Amino acid sequence: MPLKALARCLAVKSRDTRDRSIEVIKRYLGTDHVFFLSSGRAALWLYLKTVSSMKPARKEVIVPAYTCPSVVSAVLKAGLTPVLCDNNVDDFGFLCEELEEKLNKKTLAVIVVHLYGMPVRLDKIQALCRGNDTWLVEDAAQSFGGSFPGNPDVKLGLAADAGFFSFGRGKPISILHGGLLTVKSRDIHGEALNLYGRVNGFSSSQSVNYCLSLGLYSLFSNPRLYWFPQLIPALNLGGTVFEPEFEITSGNSLAMSLACEMIDSIEVEKRVREDNSRWYFDNLEEFQWAGIRPAPVYPYLRYPLLFTDGGVRNRILESLVSAGTGATGSYPTPLNILPGLKEVLADEREYKNAKQISASIVTLPVHSGVTEKDRENIKRIIAQASHAN
Ligand SMILES: Cc1ncc(COP(=O)(O)O)c(C=O)c1O
To answer: Residues 345-369: what's their mean pLDDT?
Structure first.
């Protein structure tokens, strides 16, 4: 996050900024039905809580078996029951045959996740949801600014009944705080407005903490210093933990104006992400498991590389992490066997694709701090570690 943008935002007054910022965001997204909250989870909670009051008999929400555990936290916090469905390995969306089986008269909503900024094809999923009178929500937490291939006018997060975005760490706009909810229906927007009006504001002590965290984050998001926070175990960078509790507030005004400042640079950042992704596609093809073919030209948030052999993948991941390359193993297991969540979900089924993805994936950094030398280094480490015995 650029320090210049932070300094500009610190200089402005809060109430006016908030109103102005939300207008900028609405204009960018092309919709009037937008809410700013403290996180992506809080945004999802607002939607689920709203629609749940409109259809109280429907208590189930279908989520992918391989995804960020925060999605489940939001479902639980809204008083609903998460039901898992296996992913497909093409775009990490749903295995549609299984989705069809799991949809029933208790299903309130389905949450489809554009993981790593990769657009999930929605037509079949949308048709299944409509046939069951179920709302479809796009989790675009990792995809702000992305659009559907071949359809650049349709933004990820704005194609279904609702969508949400995150401005947390490692997201397209990464300011450690904030999330957006977008809602298609005017009626649901009206209901959500009532509930939003009862959500707490952001306190002054929270604002002070936020500013301090932002300062440190700006310092350490310098690629030359990125290795440092990774060495502090308490920060758990790259780790995945299930946190059932999270705050729900209407968010910090500084974060809102920062997000707006950064909207201007998103197209430039996307071009860099697209170039880096294309480089990985062209140069790491021999290592990519044949079951997945990421589109060669797309501005991923992180480039997903899947290895055929789990043992080789673990060795490569370890080498990439210890060399401070910014590569991660992403989510370590399907949600139903993730420590902490396992007991909550009590779901003994095997989700084959989710298991395969979690055991074979390495995600590579594509942001503007990645240099040609970094990419070459990543390639060299992968080649060396994949041939070592
Ligand atoms: C796919 C996905 N969904 C939801 C979330 C939740 O967003 P937040 O951390 O802003 O609550 C995240 C954040 O990491 C995410 O990656």
So the answer is: 96
